[in-house]
Amino acid sequence: MPLMLACALVFSSCSRNTRVYDSVTEGRISDSVSAPDSSSELSGSLTFYYSGNGSQLKYLAERFMSENENVTIEFYNYDNDSDAELITKLTSGQAGDIIDLSNIDMYRYSGSGLFENLYKYMNDDPDFNMDDYYTNIFRAMEIDDRLLAVPYAFTYTTLRFNSSLMELIGVDADSLESVDCYDIYDYYSRVMQVCESGESLKLSEWNMLDLEISAFFDPIKNLNDFSRFSEFLTIDKEIDAHKIAFSSYLNNPYSDDMMLTSNQLLKCVYPSAADMNFLRFDYSNENNSLPVTVTDSAGNIPFTVTSGPYAISSLSNNKDLAWSFLKYMISDIELGSKIKRGMNINGFLINRNVNQQIYDVMNTGGMDELFEKMDSELEKLSVYSYYNEARASISSAVSSFLYGSSDTESCASACSDIALKYLGE
Question: How far apart, in whole angstroms, are the C-alpha atoms of residue 159 and residue 153?
């Protein structure tokens, strides 16, 4: 089947077939790595096929090789490979030992035997402690009781309401625990009727489909139910008409673009222990509520992988070494090796302990209770907003609908057909 490689996240491209030590910034690890352990038993060569920038992967690989002098790790970027080239590499073993699945349809290839079940390695490794990780994310990524890949980092969606506008309809935004897209539409409709802004009331740029898609389509659960999709599309179109994109990143986006103005009802926040967006808000601004978690209509909290997920090839000749490096990547090694020198970590790390380290460094006081609340939300994350070809096609159909190329019924029917065809292949 054709393999679509449309990127879900935007990264700068790296040249292909580049050895890690050719592209890692000179001197990056000189003051942060421990001396190599000459007694290390690890040895061998690994090849890592990745998409996007890969700077954090290469940084961790440099550290790992410094601590294991008999290990070599090479990186190859597959962004410029054609569908046929990548499929050939996946099925022949040429795609290396560890494979970045961020732009590969994991579900479509789940039954092919191409990727190792990582639960086996976790269960057989006495040094791997499940309690150190957000294991509900592992469960959300299971396919037929197998864990084919693990993320390095992930995020979920929260939003800040305009407290002043919400007060107009008698709602204390700070007391809200969660909302879904239908709640948001209800609040929006009510506020629009009573506020001075009226039709000029704006919302931040956000994608409703990413948060609600699992209520209609989930290949892992064999779900294909678009019975409410017309209702969803109607609301989506109304909300889309009142969005305002982040205006500029020339200034600090946390204090400027993310700050609610008087005619904005809400703005989305993608929380992270690494940059703690909510710490950057000016709490003297009366418009900003505390973060409210956005769920799907079933009450699940969707999360999105921002780095990875990473799989071990079943055709690898060095699977145990591949697991050692994969475990190292997500382990709770000291804070500096995770975020030193401005590494771009989008979202929370899969490792609980490192998130706490990051927060402890950044917290200047008075925010512990809020972080505990945000951290507790991670234990509830239950829907993986994964990449698959049907999801990409459904998103394209919805975008066409929002631009007026189809009506609700025909769009809903087309999306249902896409899902049905995908599940039947």
Answer: 20
DSSP 295: -
Nearest one of 373, 384, 236 to 302, comparing CA atoms: 384
Q: Is 282 exposed, middle or buried (0-12, 13-18, 19+ CB in 10 A)?
A: exposed
The reported pLDDT for the residue numbered 362 is 67
- The amino acid at residue 11 is F
Q: What is the pLDDT of residues 278-322, one digit of tens each?
A: 544 544 456 788 888 999 999 999 999 988 999 999 999 999 999
State how far the Cα of 144 lies from the Cα of 224, in Å rounded to an integer. Answer: 18
Please give the CATH topology (third level) of the domain spanning 156-303+386-424. Answer: D-Maltodextrin-Binding Protein; domain 2 (3.40.190)
Q: Name the pTM for this structure.
A: 0.82
DSSP string, 376-406: HHHTTEEEE----HHHHHHHHHHHHHHTTSS
Work out the average pLDDT over 47-66.
90
Does residue 383 surpass a pLDDT of 80? Answer: yes
The CATH number of 18-152+307-351, from 3.40.50.170, 3.40.190.10, 3.30.420.40, 3.40.50.300, is: 3.40.190.10
pLDDT at 67 over 50: yes
**pLDDT tens digits, one per residue of 145-191:** 999 999 998 989 888 899 999 999 999 998 999 999 999 999 999 99
Domains of the chain, by residue range, sit at: 18-152+307-351, 156-303+386-424
Residues in the chain: 425
Alpha-carbon separation of residue 101 from 323, 335, 388, 425 (angstroms): 16, 26, 10, 20
CB contact set of 421 (below 8 Å; sequence gap of 6+): 390
Cis preceding-peptide flag for 309 (omega within 30 of 0):
yes
Give the model confidence (pLDDT) of 10-47 as tens digits: 222 332 222 232 222 222 223 333 333 434 589 999 99
